[in-house]
Design a protein that fits this description.
alpha/beta, Maf protein, 7 strands, globular
Length: 197
Amino acid sequence: MIAVTLASQSAARAAILRGAGVDFETVASGIDEEAVKPALLAGGGTPRSVAAELATLKAVAVSRTRPGLVIGADQTLDLNGVLGDKATDMGDARRRLMSLRGRTHRLHAAVVVARGGSAVWRLTDTASLTMRAFSEAFVDGYLARAGEAVLSSVGGYQIEGEGAQLFEAIEGDYFSILGLPLLPLLEALRREGALPR
């Protein structure tokens, strides 16, 4: 089988791949996302295109130095066309959750497979999530129980746990919401010879 590398330090993405039985190594991409995002947005980028471009940059960069296939992924939060970033601290997480309360936002999950410095497959999937009009007491309790783990999520929530209680409606692929469109990725890996058919 062809070697697979995940160009990400995301524990969630690694857990998804591991759970699906994919044998892979993890390598940091070295891409400075905080430097790249403003340039992409200034050039007319949208939250969706930013996710796609960051996933490509990560996969291509690592594939220049690693054999086999390299998976790059990124996820962005889109609230009415405005890019949302990860919270910097718990106070920021609370402000972000309150700004999403009672509103619908989108998550764009991009994944790219690269080999030898070139992308060989790419996909960006979008999910739509509507938060319920929860109370301030609920969000305070949620954050106290979830702790700083919410800082690793672009929305400040984790729907695979108690964060599901923040929502009244979700439309889209579960794995994409977690940050990795798994089923299409698995098919791409099979097609490229990294998984058995």
